[in-house]
Specification:
The protein is of the alpha/beta class. The protein has helices spanning 16-25, 46-59, 73-81, 92-95, 98-110, 156-169, 187-193, 202-205, 210-218, and strands spanning 3-7, 30-36, 63-69, 87-91, 114-119, 137-141, 175-179, 197-200. The N and C termini lie close together (10 Å).
Length: 220
């Protein structure tokens, strides 16, 4: 079953609680928390995203899907661990060394969360193959990380397809999540390429009928 993780990146603060309620009743599966530090990516929204994560955890039983677009990964893993997120994902481009990457994987597991590694559009799946037996999820960025409302880069779905083939060939139990520019007109392409979880932001947040929009991206 395809799952939807609703990105709160472009949610208006004054409407945040109502939007989260509407998303949950619209049958999403996770709240996607995009944490950006102003270093790994240009924008800094750490305070706002922590506020949204706290709000979501208080008003909803849905899992938090925390996507760390930060340089100091360990600090934010520690900060978010108290919220017991379902998933914590970090960028391989930020962890940089094999030793650090392995340590972060263990740190997230010790928090009780599923571990995700994310790769940006210019990063090859070869960079993460050695870690696949030890993690639960790969997040393939289908846009350049750091900004909302971008258009999906079609070539990134070839990466999803190649990753899916590698996972199946090696009998690995790993979900593939895609993030960036997902909407009704391209969700099926992502699913056909091998995506298990779709991160959907603007298309859902500004939809006049969120339940119907969720059904459309899931292909129901």
């Amino acid at each position: 079953m395809i799952e939807v993780s609703a990105s709160l990146l472009n949610v208006e603060k004054e409407n945040a609680t109502r939007t989260m309620y509407n998303l949950e009743t619209g049958k999403i599966d996770y709240f996607h928390i995009d944490v950006m530090d102003g270093k790994f990516v240009e924008k800094n929204n750490t305070e706002l995203m922590k506020d949204y994560a706290l709000t979501a955890s208080h008003i909803s039983n849905l899992g938090l899907d925390v996507h760390l677009m930060v340089e100091n990964i360990e600090e934010f893993v520690d900060e978010y661990s108290m919220l017991e997120p379902e998933i914590i994902t970090f960028h391989i481009e930020a962890s940089k060394t094999e030793e650090r990457t392995k340590n972060i994987i263990e740190e997230i597991k010790n928090c009780g969360s599923r571990v995700g590694i994310s790769i940006s559009p210019d990063t090859s799946i070869e960079e993460i193959k050695k870690y696949l037996p030890y993690i639960h999820l790969v997040l393939v960025m289908t846009v350049v990380p750091g900004k909302g409302a971008q258009s999906l880069i079609p070539e990134t779905l070839e990466k999803v397809k190649a990753l899916k083939e590698y996972i199946e060939a090696n009998n690995l139990d790993i979900d593939i999540e895609v993030d960036g520019g997902i909407k009704d007109v391209n969700a099926r392409n992502a699913i056909d390429a091998g995506a298990d979880i779709l991160v959907v932001g603007t298309y859902l947040v500004y939809s006049e009928n969120i339940p119907e929009a969720v059904k459309k991206v899931k292909g129901l």
